[in-house]
Structure to design on (193 residues):
């Protein structure tokens, strides 16, 4: 599992003016949510980039007042005009407590249908899972080796991982091999003869 280190700084000002100054100084206001307490802090925008602007699922180790908190990204707010990150919520990982998180879904293998000239279409890039921090995985896989022209694989076809429950409906289509128009016309012409 990839980990990003973030050095948090105490956030004193909670006013609009104070938060605006924090953002102009290159800091992003953040909140760390946990069962014990919610901690407000600021983090350098440069350190936040590695966890926000990536297709991969990463865990954050937030260093704050000499203590390291292992967290996941819960919510991000972007400026509607500049598209800069203006606020982030983190969720502290507590051993034994269940969490729901969206992780990437990756295709594994080479589809038979693609080798025959079909086009691979991945309809879902992420899936929602429920697990504990000890069993947390950074990605899940679906084996597409047997996928032929015109076939579709669904959530139920994902390779199971011990201790991880997939929350998406089992019948939801995930990945398919589309038959290209040229192959359809060739089949139609062959059927006419």
């Amino acid at each position: 599992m990839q980990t990003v280190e973030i050095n948090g700084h105490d956030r004193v000002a909670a006013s609009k003016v104070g938060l605006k100054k924090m953002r102009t100084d290159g800091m992003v206001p953040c909140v760390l949510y946990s069962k014990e307490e919610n901690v407000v802090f600021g983090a350098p925008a440069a350190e936040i980039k590695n966890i926000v602007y990536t297709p991969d699922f990463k865990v954050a180790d937030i260093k704050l007042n000499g203590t390291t908190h292992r967290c996941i990204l819960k919510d991000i707010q972007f400026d509607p005009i500049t598209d800069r990150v203006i606020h982030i919520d983190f969720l502290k990982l507590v051993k034994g407590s269940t969490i729901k998180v969206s992780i990437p879904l990756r295709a594994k293998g080479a589809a038979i249908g693609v080798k025959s000239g079909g086009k691979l279409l991945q309809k879902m890039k992420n899936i929602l899972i429920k697990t504990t921090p000890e069993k947390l995985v950074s990605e899940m896989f679906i084996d597409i080796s047997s996928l032929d022209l015109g076939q579709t694989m669904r959530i139920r076809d994902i390779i199971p991982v011990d201790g991880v429950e997939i929350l998406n409906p089992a019948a939801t289509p995930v990945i398919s091999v589309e038959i290209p128009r040229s192959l359809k016309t060739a089949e139609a012409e062959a059927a006419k003869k």
Notes: The chain has four helices and 14 strands. The radius of gyration is 22 Å.
